[in-house]
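Key result, reporting period 2: structure in, sequence out.
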């Protein structure tokens, strides 16, 4: 089992020329005069370069971060009431309107929930993921089974080359082409996990980013187009620290601990289909094991 903070790279550093990154357009410098960028970044002669001041965090955002750290600590559990807005205003030396804005932000993130006259409490996990369960039961079906509305956004799609470790996982030759895709999953429009899937390219010929940009099911596509059915899976759950990108997507602090699921999905013949890593928000997701008889 990998320790927290271990590398989660999917392939070797080598990358194919075509990479699809929705929402990240290439820089366009057509409207700039020649050497405009160089001139704008070069400090004037005879003067020290002046570093721009870091933007100041709004007070409500600072309180929001403090509250998020507080409810993630050992003193609070799902369902526990948090202090009233009046008490929080005194604790943070801020007015109640500012505190209310901070609390409402955490409610919108799904971390707190209003309980009417009972006050505000730490939200229960929104998604309960079974540790065991039928292979091929994708995250969308899990969310739907609990009454939520799933959604996903394709963040990245590329063709990479297999490192020695990834080649061994997927049963391919080192340097073989891989398809790597990363998606952000939401429940009721709240982000809760970032999943990166790696597949052997020769098992999914013609798979393109356009096949997944509208939130399509990967397993549904594998079944319908390639006749690939998931039969079993090997799972490891551990802790990992968020990268800056993952923290931004999940509304966590960079380096914050999160729940990491590593999954190797196999077909009926025991051949690897997909190696997937899923980084889950620790306050929105819980993993649940099946009931088992205890023997002593």
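The corresponding designed sequence is given below.
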């Amino acid at each position: 089992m990998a320790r927290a903070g271990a590398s989660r790279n999917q392939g070797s550093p080598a990358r194919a020329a075509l990479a699809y990154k929705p929402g990240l357009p290439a820089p366009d410098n057509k409207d700039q005069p020649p050497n405009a960028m160089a001139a704008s970044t070069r400090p004037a002669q005879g003067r020290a370069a002046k570093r721009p001041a870091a933007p100041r965090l709004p007070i409500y955002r600072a309180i929001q971060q403090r509250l998020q750290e507080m409810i993630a600590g050992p003193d609070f559990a799902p369902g526990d009431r948090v202090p009233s807005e009046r008490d929080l205003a005194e604790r943070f030396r801020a007015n109640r309107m500012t505190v209310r804005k901070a609390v409402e932000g955490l409610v919108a993130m799904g971390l707190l929930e209003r309980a009417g006259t009972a006050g505000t409490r730490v939200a229960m996990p929104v998604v309960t993921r079974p540790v065991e369960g039928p292979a091929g039961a994708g995250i969308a079906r899990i969310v739907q089974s609990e009454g939520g509305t799933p959604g996903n956004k394709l963040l990245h799609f590329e063709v990479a080359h297999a490192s020695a470790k990834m080649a061994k996982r997927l049963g391919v030759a080192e340097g073989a082409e891989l398809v790597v895709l990363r998606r952000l999953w939401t429940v009721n429009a709240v982000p809760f996990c970032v999943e990166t899937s790696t597949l052997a390219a020769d098992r999914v010929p013609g798979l393109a980013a356009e096949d997944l940009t509208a939130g399509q099911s990967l397993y549904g596509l594998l079944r319908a187009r390639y006749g690939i059915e998931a039969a079993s899976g090997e799972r490891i759950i551990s802790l990992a620290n968020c990268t800056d990108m993952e923290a931004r997507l999940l509304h966590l602090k960079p380096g914050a601990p999160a729940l990491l699921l590593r999954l190797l999905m196999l077909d009926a013949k025991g051949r690897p289909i997909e190696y997937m890593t899923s980084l889950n928000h620790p306050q929105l997701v819980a993993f649940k094991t099946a009931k088992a008889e205890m023997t002593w």
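Helices lie at 36-41, 59-72, 85-92, 96-108, 139-145, 164-170, 218-226, 244-250. Confidence is low (pLDDT under 50) at residues 1-7, 10-42. This case is discussed further under Risks and Mitigation.
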